[in-house]
Write a structure and sequence with these properties.
The complex is a heterodimer of chains A (451) and B (59).
Chain A lengths: L6 H9 L5 H14 L6 E4 L1 H16 L11 E5 L8 E2 L8 E2 L4 H8 L3 E6 L19 E2 L2 E5 L5 H8 L5 E6 L5 H7 L2 E4 L19 E6 L2 H10 L16 E5 L9 H16 L3 E5 L7 H23 L6 H10 L4 H21 L5 E5 L12 E4 L2 E4 H6 L4 H5 L3 E9 L2 E8 L5 H16 L11
Parallel strand pairs in A: 2-5, 2-8, 11-12, 11-13
Antiparallel strand pairs in A: 1-5, 3-4, 6-7, 8-10, 9-10, 9-16, 13-17, 14-15, 16-17
Helix pairs in contact in A: 2-3, 7-14, 8-14, 9-10, 9-11
Chain B lengths: L6 H14 L6 H30 L3
Helix pairs in contact in B: 1-2
The chains are: A alpha+beta (451), B mainly alpha (59).
């Protein structure tokens, strides 16, 4: 039997002994099997998860809960090392094996049950989840569409009740993009806040790891279990708040349904007494050029040896992007690093006097699988550039950002994004909890209504 | 490449290297990267001019 609820509620039900961890894990395994065609998982840890569930049940029976996630099944993106498993990074390149990443150890300490490792865009180097050695990740609402990426399987696993929380990584938007496409919540904390040790890097200075879940409260609980700094349970701050919508660059070209969702969110927030103003981030148009000159050489440096020995094992598109990085000049990398500092100050400046920035997480809804370009607001653009446009700046600057479901357009989920102050992820989560009813447009928007 | 590595000089050298490595499919990506390189250098110039201008502005 599937229990359709969030992570926090499931944790409560297990603690109260209203639901058995064995029953919950069994239901999740059945969901994984029932929707195998979505290719959400690379490794399913069925035996281990059931053994852990039996242990969790025994412990809870004697009142010995290990932590906040006792007995709750979660998954991690298959870039993250889990003891006793291969880390494939979604690639046919030989996998690596390692001890539990610190993030995984913390989840286990909190009592979480690792149910499996999710599929992804190969080496996290893409936003569509279709370049992977383990079959393209398919959107739960339409198998011909992308689930976003690169944490594609993680988002599908949440929407489809295959687990109650998932860990993703985000180098240019890889937590927030699939969260937006699939209609869930995804948090990219402040840069460096959660350890990326034991995680295959894409870009060592842009990588972030973070939680993906159904609600802000669920994401906060998972964030805390992963080692994120939160003082006790999430407390939405009282009173009215000030939000800024950065128009130029970010909102120049949006799919009409996404623009409508932004306008609806603004009206709902203003109707509730919050202040929403138009702002701009100086030189936001630098973003893609700065990003490219950092991510490409950093990714290529990590892959240099494997590109020599196993070039034919990479997906052609991923291999070419990695090869491209080998041609970036050191002086241009340094230029990008200098401009990165300036962009960070500019985002700080845009946040001055505000609680957060509010903008869509993605300019479009789920694109067709394999599409090289999409039409946005009447003009055709490369799908990768469109999908990264609203998220990648905050990887460059390190500001915390959270994607949240904001209704649907044409039957597919739309995602909004709140961006907070650097080092203040806990404040952003609390604000997001307060804004959630206005942004989501009410219950039932998880997974675009499928949840 | 010489001391003055312009995006054009870089593109020509990178394209020759892609041919040598029998990776012709890399060439369109290198062209895209050369445009981004030009843009990055314009941004840097803008940044320098604004920094100088800010430093000259009396406080």
């Amino acid at each position: 039997m599937t229990h359709r609820c969030g992570l926090a509620e499931m944790a409560r039900l297990i603690r109260a002994r209203e639901v058995s961890p064995v029953e919950v894990v069994t239901a999740c395994l059945e969901r994984i099997e029932a929707r195998r065609e979505l290719n959400a998982f690379i490794t399913v840890l069925a035996e281990g998860a059931l053994a852990e569930a039996r242990r969790a049940e025994t412990e809870i029976a004697r009142g010995a809960a290990r932590g906040a996630l006792h007995g709750v099944p979660v998954s991690v993106k298959d870039l993250i090392d889990v003891a006793g498993t291969e880390t494939t990074a979604g690639s046919a390149v030989p996998p690596r094996r390692g001890p539990d990443a610190p993030i995984v150890s913390r989840l286990r300490e909190a009592g979480a049950i690792l149910i499996g490792k999710t599929n992804l865009h190969e080496f996290a180097f893409g936003t569509t989840g279709d370049e992977t050695a383990f079959g393209p990740v398919r959107h739960p609402l339409d198998p011909g569409r992308s689930a976003g990426g690169s944490s594609s399987g993680a988002a599908v696993a949440i929407v489809e009740d295959m687990c109650y929380g998932s860990v993703g990584t985000d180098t240019g938007g890889s937590i927030r993009i699939p969260s937006a496409v699939c209609g869930i919540v995804g948090l990219k904390p402040t840069i460096g806040e959660l350890s990326c040790e034991g995680i295959v890097p894409l870009s060592t200075t842009l990588d972030h790891v973070g939680p993906m879940a159904r609600t802000v409260a669920d994401a906060a609980l998972l964030f805390q279990a992963m080692g994120g700094s939160l003082d006790g349970p999430l407390q939405p701050p009282p009173g009215c708040h000030a939000l800024g919508i950065p128009g130029p660059y970010f909102c120049d070209r949006l799919e009409p349904g996404v623009r409508a969702a932004l306008e609806r969110t603004r009206r709902d927030l203003e109707g509730a007494g919050h202040r929403v103003i138009d702002v701009s981030v100086a030189h936001a148009e630098w973003t893609a050029d700065v990003y490219l000159h950092i991510v490409l050489p950093e990714a290529s440096a990590w892959h240099a040896r494997t590109l020599e020995t196993h070039a034919d094992r990479y997906s052609p598109g991923v291999r070419l992007r990695l090869e491209m990085g080998r041609y970036v000049l050191a002086e241009d990398y340094v230029r990008a690093t200098t401009l990165r500092t300036r962009l960070r100050e500019n985002v700080d400046g845009a946040l001055d006097g505000l609680d957060a920035l509010l903008l869509p997480a993605l300019a479009i809804t789920a694109p067709p699988l394999g599409a090289a370009s999409v039409e946005v607001d009447g003009s055709r653009e490369p799908v990768r550039a469109v999908m990264l446009r609203l998220t990648q700046l905050f990887n460059i600057t390190g500001h915390p950002a959270i994607a949240m479901p904001a209704g649907s357009s044409g039957g597919f989920p739309v995602g909004m994004q709140l961006v907070g102050r650097r080092g203040r992820t806990a404040d952003l989560l609390a604000l997001a909890a307060a804004m959630e009813p206005y942004i989501t447009g009410g219950p039932g928007s998880v997974g675009g209504g499928t949840g | 490449l010489g001391v003055d590595v312009t995006p054009q000089a870089w593109l020509e050298a990178a394209t020759r290297d892609a041919d040598r490595r029998e990776l012709p499919e890399l060439k369109p990506l290198l062209e895209t990267l050369s445009k981004s390189m030009e843009a990055l250098r314009r941004h840097e110039q803008e940044h320098i001019e604004e920094t100088v201008s800010a430093a000259r502005t009396p406080r």
